[in-house]
Amino acid sequence: MVSFGAASGAPPAIDPGLLRAKGELYLTSTSIFPRDADPQDLQANAADLFDATARGHVAVDIGARFALADIVEVHRAAEARRIEGAILITP
């Protein structure tokens, strides 16, 4: 299992022995911060991501679009988990 973020809070603890007993299962979590700590790495990784998106290798799920004037509603919708995917906020 791979955990991508924790928007709903930290996941419950998992006993490593249980993972082994069920057939050498693995649990990992990702973070971009170690890979993008250097500004040059961040720029290179962002360029690679935008290129992969432009080529159709990566899909971006835009869950909602809001005007900046509606920022209070954006926060309410996000906190209530009414939106799945990215939230675009425009001026």
Mean pLDDT, to the nearest integer, reads 86
Order of H and E elements: EHEHEHE
Strand content: 15-25%
The level of helicity is: 25-40%
Key words describing this protein structure:
alpha/beta, two-stranded parallel ribbon
What does this structure look like?
Helices cover 34% and strands 16% of the residues. By secondary structure, the chain is an alpha/beta fold. It has a two-stranded parallel ribbon with strand order 1-2. A two-stranded parallel ribbon has the order 3-4. The relative contact order is 0.12.
List the helices and strands and how they pair.
Layout: E1 2-3, H1 16-21, E2 28-29, H2 39-54, E3 62-67, H3 71-79, E4 86-90
Parallel strand pairs: 1-2, 3-4
What is this structure, in a nutshell?
The protein is of the alpha/beta class and 91 residues long. It has 3 helices and 4 strands; from the N terminus they run βαβαβαβ.
